[in-house]
Design brief:
Blueprint (H helix, E strand, L loop, with lengths): L6 H5 L3 H10 L3 H5 L4 H8 L1 H21 L7 H16 L7 E2 L3 E3 L10 H11 L19 H11 L3 E5 L2 H13 L3 E5 L5 E2 L3 E2 H7 L3 E5 L7 H7 L4 E7 L15 H10 L3 E8 L18 H6 L4 E5 L10 E5 L1 H9 L1 H5 L4 H15 L7 H7 L2 H21 L6 E12 L8 E9 L6 H9 L5 E2 L1 E3 L2 E5 L7 H17 L1
Parallel strand pairs: 1-14, 2-12, 4-7, 4-8, 8-9, 9-10
Antiparallel strand pairs: 3-11, 5-6, 10-11, 12-13, 13-16, 15-16
Helix pairs in contact: 4-5, 4-6, 5-6, 7-16, 8-16, 18-20
The structure holds pyridoxal-5'-phosphate (PLP).
Pyridoxal-5'-phosphate binds next to helix 9 and strand 9.
Length: 487
């Protein structure tokens, strides 16, 4: 057994002692003779396995020299080598069970796409395709064509362009439409989204001069009016996404901004953040005021940008919809080439948009999860609870328990900041694990990781964000956790 890290003890280690322990480290040949090595060589390649083992031996040597390790138990080192190799055979980007109740969880990949969209992406990726080819005339086509018409039909836009994400969409638009000129933004909309996207910095990067108007909580039309100069190019409206000013608050309606912009020959651009394509009310969402892309365009915005993987429920992408001449200018700008999307994204986006066109948006996972009502969640919750209790009973754990409790879910992705969605969660208590944080960690480290929430020293498994088959993954994970604790 390795002895505990103990500085005083290591200080007592003489160089002779250290040399003796160094000689006890198992050799590379010895490690390579383990019967499991053949399988790892098959998966990782012989040279790789050898290199990884050499790195490990080097680390062990370092631990001995620094005094961190005071023995070289060969069985322990061999076991460590095998578990290290095992960790290299699993994919690094893995699927997980999202039991957080946050539907558009940015760290967990935002929206899962519809199975149909995923299939189109896979098929397109594994084959040649009409990515930039016209079957009609056998000549070169444009990759944007596959989705442009669909976006236009769904939003009422004249024209549309798709880039890598919404951040790219905003940068591209401001660069092309307002570089070296002024863009006017309300102080209430100078927001930061997810740390790396801050409107003032994005504007600086785009080379447009930010002109702030109004106050954080109130901005009037006359504020915009007064700020317009000969050098103004754009009036920019930004959806505050993850924050909301409540109380004494006013912003200028889009229609009024539009008429001001158009009277002065300016462009009204809106960064909508989440691209909602269908009415929030129709989805049963609390904030029915949330504008759709069509609302924004109809109110007179000339250019609207939004994400593909927020409320739209598609792949990561940034959609720019609006006036034909403006989109035309974006299309030919050299930066656009650097921001273009790949064929898998286009395929997934095309299918997602087609699902909307046929009015079948409930088969888009994000929309389906957001629309779930309490009775449905309660029924699914009870089902999961029964399965979990059955597992706990069969494993004869004396102290572990589970119960279903009301919980607050969230849309996430900066959508609907103040509308917490009422939901349910299974509260899991495994006292053997030694605390809720430890239980959550063990669930996270399972072969099929389950991401739970720790709240008030409870581990919560939210029902809303569970996908088909997750019940089984959760019960297997709990079994795995209890097995690990018994060892
Ligand atoms: C999320 C968001 C962005 C960034 O979108 P990405 O697709 O993540 O690049 C930009 N603006 C607003 C208002 C947002 O909500």
């Amino acid at each position: 057994m390795p002895q505990q890290n103990n500085n005083r003890k290591s200080d007592l280690m003489t160089p002779d002692n250290k040399n003796k322990i160094l000689r006890e480290i198992p050799s590379m040949d010895r490690l390579l003779r383990a019967p499991q090595i053949a399988e790892y060589e098959k998966q990782l390649g012989h040279a790789n396995v050898k290199a990884l083992l050499a790195e490990l031996l080097c680390t062990v040597r370092g631990e001995i020299l620094s005094g961190e390790r005071t023995s070289a138990d060969s069985g322990e080192i061999a076991a460590r080598a095998l578990s290290m190799l095992a960790s290299h055979t699993v994919q690094d980007l893995r699927t997980v069970v999202n039991a957080t109740g946050v539907v558009l969880h940015t760290n967990l990949g935002r929206s899962p796409i519809a199975a149909e969209a995923a299939k189109h992406a896979c098929d397109t990726a594994a084959s040649y395709s009409t990515l930039e080819y016209s079957l009609e005339n056998g000549r070169r086509g444009s990759r944007n064509d596959h989705v442009e018409r669909l976006i236009c039909r769904l939003t009422g836009a004249e024209s549309a362009l798709v880039v890598n994400n919404n951040a790219a969409a905003v940068i591209l638009c401001l660069t092309v439409l307002a570089k070296d000129r002024e863009s006017i933004v309300s102080r209430g909309e100078l927001v930061e989204i997810g740390g790396s996207f801050r409107i003032p910095e994005i504007m600086e990067l785009s080379g447009t001069k930010l002109v702030e108007v109004g106050a954080t909580n109130r901005t009037h039309l006359r504020d915009y009016e007064r700020a317009i100069t000969d050098n103004t190019a754009v009036l920019l409206k930004v959806h505050p996404s993850n924050y909301r000013v409540v109380g004494f608050h006013s912003e200028v309606p889009r229609e009024e901004l539009a008429s001001l912009a158009h009277r002065c020959g300016l462009i009204l651009m809106e960064d909508l953040g989440s691209g909602l394509l269908v009415d929030a009310g129709r989805l049963g969402l609390l904030d029915t005021e949330y504008p759709t892309v069509a609302d924004s365009l109809k109110a007179g915005c000339n250019i609207v940008t939004f994400s593909g993987d927020k409320l739209l429920g598609g792949p990561q992408a940034g959609v720019i919809a609006g006036r034909k001449d403006l989109i035309g200018r974006l299309r030919t700008y050299p930066l656009t080439r650097a921001l273009r999307v790949g064929k898998m994204t286009l395929a997934a986006l095309e299918t997602t948009l087609r699902i909307y066109l046929r009015g079948d948006e409930l088969s888009i996972p994000a929309i389906e999860m957001l629309s779930k009502r309490e009775p449905e969640l309660l029924a699914s919750g009870r089902k999961l609870l029964r399965k979990i209790r059955k597992v706990l009973k069969s494993l004869q754990t004396q102290r572990a328990s589970a119960e279903l409790i009301p919980a607050k879910d969230a849309a996430g992705g900066g959508a609907f900041p103040q509308s917490e969605l009422p939901g349910f969660a299974v509260a899991l208590d495994i006292p053997e694990a030694g605390g809720a944080g430890k239980t959550a960690e063990l669930l996270r480290r399972c072969p099929e990781p389950v991401i739970a929430v720790v709240s008030d020293d409870m581990v919560l498994l939210h029902i809303r964000t569970l996908r088909p088959g997750d019940d089984v993954r959760i019960t297997s994970a709990i079994t795995h956790v209890l097995d690990t604790l018994r060892k």
